[in-house]
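chain below, 169 aa
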Amino acid sequence: MYGLFSLLLLTYLPQPSLLTLQGSVEMDRSPVPGVQIQVIGGKGEAVTDANGRYVLSISSTLSLVAVQYSLPGSLVTEVKNVPLGGSLLEMPTIPVFPYMTLHVSEFDRLSPTDQLGYQPMYCWADLLGYFHPNKMDATQLKNYSFPLSFQEASGKVVILYQDLVDGVR
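prediction:
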């Protein structure tokens, strides 16, 4: 009796789907190596190669997942509602965006309140400028043919998968 019940229970539990996701990542229209890619809502991680390309195996019981792209010194880009149908999905090129940076003279002109959150950038002992991990130059969002939204509180650029696909066509 328990054996039959266990067998019936296992047949109704959602089985993880397996999918290979591949694509490339760019910043300012150039390939970016070393971007970490992680699946939210499933299992899978990868890092872009020297040409900004990646191949990622995903395992999930969900039909839609989010995929995050992160690189030190840049904002996280999150693509939401990535479908897990089929066995291979070629992603359109994903953009990543650098943190908002200011030259020392620009930073010095800001009020003390506006300077909050900025951190110094050094090369050896030389102060190069300042960066803010939750801000970006909003003009960068206008350079793409698909809608992007910037969430300042989390420091993320969010793209819906279908908008990304529609913008590439």
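The chain has two domains: 14-97+142-168, 101-130. Confidence is low (pLDDT under 50) at residues 6-10.
thats it, cya
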